[in-house]
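Example 3.2
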Amino acid sequence: MCDESPLGHVVVGLSPLVRPRQGSSSSERHGPRGDERMRVHRATAQSYSQTMDAVLPVTLDAVRLSLHVLAATVWVGGQLVLAALVPVLRRVSPEGPRAAARAFNRVAWAAFAVLIATGVWNVLALGDPGDAYRTTLIVKLVLVAASGITAFLHARASRRTALAVFGAMTGLTAVGALFVGVVLAG
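Structure, written as tokens:
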């Protein structure tokens, strides 16, 4: 019933519209189908209340991990998309890839910073994970550092060979860090 759950009032409307008035039936207020409508409203409110009890709560861990995954999506996924677009951008304009890379860098480096911050937060939230986990985590940290360093060198490179080598290394180390992160997550 609506009166049993404060959420029920949200679902079916304002409480004065839901609660029956003293001394009157719903059919008097709403016509012959009023009682049926009230039963449907009450059932909906009760169902919603039970559903809310069955939904997992949003935790700080969920927020932390979501931010980490979102930032990884931008950092790794953005590199893969940009790499796939380079040939098309070159056909449009010789400066196309460079302009796209500069625009991407504004978003990518912010995502990298979020990855570092949430990565530190992830480690602090761990407790003592054991030796194998720590060793795997060190592998991930090396890959993350290599990805950041090679991305920085790629952004500063002027020769085509250096752009290609550092770009490939950035992508490979970023995908490697992503993979090891999934291994760590279990």
